[in-house]
Amino acid sequence: MDRNSPIGVFDSGIGGLTVLREITRLLPNENTIYLGDTARVPYGSKSKETVERYSFEVANFLIKHDIKLLVAACNTASAYAVPKLKRELKIPVLGVIEPGAKAAVSVTSHNKIGVIGTEGTIRSSAYCTAIKSVNPEVSTFTKACPLFVPLVEEGWANDEVTALVAERYLCDLKDSGIDTLVLGCTHYPLLKETIASVMGSAVTLIDSAASTAAEVKRILSESNMFNAKTGQAKHRFFVTDSPERFLTVGRRFFGDNLSEAELAQLTEN
Fold first, then answer.
1. Domain at 238, CATH number
2. Which domain holds residue 171?
3. What is the mean pLDDT of residues 223-241?
4. Partner of 173 for a Cys bridge, out of 23, 114, 138, 160, CB 3.0 to 4.6 A?
């Protein structure tokens, strides 16, 4: 494994670009390869066995590009596939759930943590399990917020419609007395301002994307695997379906540096 090899990041679609963005901000010298499995999005409605299969197909594609670390920037893949990926792959594997859970436990003052996510993520109870594995004394409160994803992808993150939807989704969590709220979907960091305005200053928001990037940095530091080459880092983007929408919507997540996406063939026909 070459320390100058890229970091591999994957998601079922576009949302994982928020994780990639945080990784590139924190580790600007690192090369990356991102794969969005846009032909099979979303993973949240699939069975555990299917998500595992998809995740291994994506991982094998990225491993062929000589990655040194694999990040599952997808909550569903993190819940269903990361444990098996960790056991079977020869490179470090990281999901987004454990870093977010650890960060939430580290900042809560009253041991009352809320988690919002897609219906699949909330149904899996993966965040609650991860939080309680760190501190069994924590009480968790959850809410599925399925409309947040299409609102973000439509470019309505700061729209009054989104503010009304957020108020409706989050009112019960606000009344529960939580002091920490985990943004348990990779789309949700784009809604930070809206969510914060609803929850108020007494509630700390945990961005799993930022927590995951910090964990990537820790892993590379402990294994002495930081990129040793100087110069501009290279970032490649792959999708499994037509790249046009990925590029258009993806720039809202990653910025204008997302200029080109290549088509990936994961399996032989």
1. 3.40.50.1860
2. 97-208
3. 93
4. 114
Residue with tokens 């491993």: 63
Instruction: Assess whether 74 carries a catalytic annotation.
Output: yes
* pLDDT tens, residue by residue, 171-221: 999 999 999 999 999 999 999 999 999 999 999 999 999 999 999 999 999
CA pair distance 82, 75, nearest whole angstrom:
10
C-beta separation of 119 from 129 below 8 A: no
Residue 33, phi then psi, degrees to nearest 5: -130, 125
Q: What secondary structure does DSSP assign to 201-226, as a single string?
A: TTSEEEEHHHHHHHHHHHHHHHTT--
The angle at the Cα of 94, spanning 92 to 99, to the nearest 5 degrees, equals 135
Residue from 74, 128, 145, 171 carrying the catalytic annotation:
74
The reply to whether 241 falls in a domain is yes
Q: What is the pLDDT of residue 269?
A: 39
Distance CA 187, CA 15 (A): 5
Contact between residue 198 and residue 174 where contact means Cβ atoms under 8 Å apart: yes
Q: What's the pTM value of the predicted model, to 2 decimals? A: 0.91
Mean pLDDT of the chain: 94
